[in-house]
């Protein structure tokens, strides 16, 4: 049985708690932050990626996850992405005045990642690329792709991502950084909109 507790903290911040038989997760997110992060998932490389995500997106982020790592990393990475997506969706509320669309390319040495996002309210994920090694530390490389998919589905994003490179550490880190920069751009307030929702439908 899945239990969710979602709290709206400020205009652009949220706290989400999720408990299942596989993970217990507590996330707080402030979209208009300074890039400060406190993260503990039990997976060192994943912690590093989430800290990088916060730093480069200028999101204040706390993540505390107690997962079934005695099995593998799947539930921890997937469920953190689910909760983080829920936090973004809650923090953005009606999405009034946001830029909505953004795209970024981020290099890390030989690797290059590209991300295009529409904060659309219509979740969709597409990915193009392969990871050069099967794992980085205690994180399975393909879980980076699954993280992005779960984030997109739960934050109601249309998200297209691609990556090339020769080193999985670089490839995954470039993906997390590119996603952060793109979400920072797309969720910024465009003062020219005067608080209107950026859609001819009147809502997202």
UniProtKB/TrEMBL annotation:
PROSITE patterns assigned: IGP_DEHYDRATASE_1, IGP_DEHYDRATASE_2
Family assignment from sequence similarity: Belongs to the imidazoleglycerol-phosphate dehydratase family.
Highest taxon listed in the record's lineage: Archaea
Encoding gene, per UniProt annotation: hisB
InterPro entries: IGPD_sf, ImidazoleglycerolP_deHydtase, ImidazoleglycerP_deHydtase_CS, Ribosomal_Su5_D2-typ_SF
The protein, known as: Imidazoleglycerol-phosphate dehydratase
EC number: 4.2.1.19
Keywords: Amino-acid biosynthesis, Cytoplasm, Histidine biosynthesis, Lyase
Organism lineage string: Archaea, Methanobacteriati, Methanobacteriota, Stenosarchaea group, Halobacteria
One GO cellular component, as annotated: cytoplasm
């Amino acid at each position: 049985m899945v239990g969710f507790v979602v709290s709206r903290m400020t205009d652009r911040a949220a706290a989400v708690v999720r408990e299942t038989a596989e993970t217990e997760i507590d996330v707080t997110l402030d979209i208009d932050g300074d890039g400060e992060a406190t993260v503990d998932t039990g997976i060192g490389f994943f912690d590093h990626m989430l800290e990088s995500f916060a730093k480069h997106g200028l999101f204040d982020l706390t993540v505390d996850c107690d997962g079934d790592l005695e099995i593998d990393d799947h539930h921890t990475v997937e469920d953190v992405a689910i909760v983080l997506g829920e936090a973004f969706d809650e923090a953005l509320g009606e999405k009034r005045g946001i830029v909505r669309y953004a795209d970024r390319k981020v290099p890390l040495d030989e690797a290059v990642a590209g991300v295009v996002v529409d904060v659309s309210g219509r979740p969709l994920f597409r990915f193009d690329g392969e990871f050069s090694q099967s794992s980085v530390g205690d994180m399975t490389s393909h879980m980076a792709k699954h993280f992005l998919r779960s984030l997109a589905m739960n934050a109601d994003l249309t998200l297209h991502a691609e990556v090339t490179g020769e080193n999985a550490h670089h490839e995954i880190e470039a993906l997390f950084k590119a996603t952060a920069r793109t979400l920072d751009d797309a969720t910024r307030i465009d003062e020219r909109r005067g608080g209107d929702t950026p859609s001819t439908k009147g809502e997202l």
